[in-house]
Amino acid sequence: MSVESSSHSETVTIDTVREAVAKLLPRYRLALEEFARIESVSWPSFDQSQVQRSAEFVAGAASALEIFDGGVAIVHAPMGDSTELGQPAVIARREPKNGAPTVLLYAHHDVQPPGDESNWETPAFVPTQKGERLFGRGVADDKAGVISHLAAIEALFTIDPETPLGLVLFVEGEEEYGSPSFANLLKDQRHLLEADVIIVADSGNWSTEIPALTVSLRGNATLKVTVRTLDHALHSGMFGGVVPDAMMPLVRILGRLHNEDGSVAVPGLTSSSAPVPEYSEKTLREESGLLDGVSPVGHGEFLDRIWNQPSITVIGLDAPATSASSNTLLPEASAMVSLRVAPGQDAQAAAGVLAEFLAQNPPLGAQVEVEIVGSGSAFKMESTHEVVGRIKSSMKAAWDVEPVDIGVGGSIPFIADFVEEFPGAVVLVTGIEDPDTRAHSPNESLHLPTFEKAIITQAHFLAGMGAASAHPAG
Ligand SMILES: [Zn+2]
């Protein structure tokens, strides 16, 4: 056994881990391809038997490891307050020994719909390698996350068959569909999910050369604002210029949402503060496709705007299409407003602040109705627990370069559910994606060397945790 009892970063040598992972990798690469052929789209309009098949695939692979003495189960929970059940999740548990901690490894086995197949250069559900990348729907998000957990666990037991570490593999089946039964699942299966450390493998790295720990995610909220001015439509020649149509106050309300520079003008929506890496306007223009002459919005460092500040976007309007327009004063018009909530602010509170702002001082006394359609919480890792340093030193060892802390402008609301249900656990958000992964888009792909490094990182982390609890440093 290559485990020593010296200080924790040295307890397991990275070469031992690399060797163990290299031996397992060809088999897990094939498993990933087989897994990615299963069209496990969790949307109700797709064939749901495929989601069941992918859950069975995960359960089978977990059972084959023969280390889960607490069992491997496929479980369902009701969605929200309804009696309808959500998609199948897989939970496998191994109890810790001698007071060692338990690490929960999270990923999801469902995938986004493929979208228009004609936009794919290779078939979405036929994993195809080109150069260092494997293309296909879900090969990265998040089937590589699932496989990286399985491979890291097998590597751990190759390196240290006697590890006292407790382990939970938790693979959800509806993340892409908004995890409607997730909160209930956590409550129902609490006894199986109890853990000290939660590793979420569903985020990305700074690049294919530099690993990252995701330390913040913005939350989100969606609000619908409806404006009414008349009890029926009117001829614009008869009454135009004397009574307002609904669009007039609506555009004024929407116009209040931003300052002149495009930053959010709603008092009470807070920002967070955290250092951000360098990101130039040139890169921003290239990556976003911003047109010549159009200026970016907001102020501060670009990544600070995306990671640490709120943003508001009007994402839909209910008004006649231009092709169906006529000379009419509209009695009613609606807009859908999407809010990204800065880390550190409660999403429901932020939605309330925005709802009040939209409804206050209605222009021309128009009737304004605001509905909060939904919200998801932000995440901010504030922990200084030693496992944070430990995962970073495993990243450094596996990648041979210092990792960076990143924020993410998007949202993974289920992480807040974890934090709420297990307030004592440290949540580490990692992932196998890189900036070219194109998760959710056509031609999604996995960078294969990144996949290997992610497995090495995790195996090194788990082996180190196990060794440290078997031989606590004096
Ligand atoms: Zn994902």
CATH class membership of the largest domain: Alpha Beta
Walk across the major sheet and give the strand order.
Answer: 1-2-6-3-7-17
The fourth-level CATH homologous superfamily of the largest domain is Zn peptidases
Beta-strand segment tally:
18
N- and C-termini, Cα separation: 21 Å
Regions with little confidence, pLDDT below 50 for 5+ residues:
1-10
Strand-residue proportion: 15-25%
Mean pLDDT: 94
Bound molecules: zinc ion
Main β-sheet: number of strands, strand sense, barrel status?
A: 6 strands, mixed
User: Globular, elongated, flat, extended or rod-shaped: what is the shape?
Assistant: elongated
At CATH level 3, the topology of the largest domain is Aminopeptidase
* Helical percentage: 25-40%
CATH architecture descriptor text of the largest domain: 3-Layer(aba) Sandwich
Number of domains: 2
Supply Rg: 25 Å
The structural class is: alpha+beta
Query: Tally the helices: what do you get?
Result: 13
Plain-language structure description:
This protein has 474 residues and is of the alpha+beta class. The protein folds into 2 domains: 8-217 and 378-470, Zn peptidases (Aminopeptidase, 3-Layer(aba) Sandwich); 219-272 and 309-376, Alpha-Beta Plaits (2-Layer Sandwich). 32% of the residues lie in helices and 21% in strands. It has 13 helices and 18 strands. It has a 6-stranded mixed β-sheet with strand order 1-2-6-3-7-17, with helices on both faces. The chain has a 4-stranded antiparallel β-sheet with strand order 11-13-9-14. Helix 4 (182-188) packs parallel to helix 12 (414-421). The longest helix has 23 residues, at 14-36. 45% of the residues are buried. Residues 1-10 have low confidence and may be disordered. The structure holds zinc ion. The site of zinc ion (ZN) has 5 residues, from loops. Zinc ion binds at residues 108, 141-142, 175, 202.
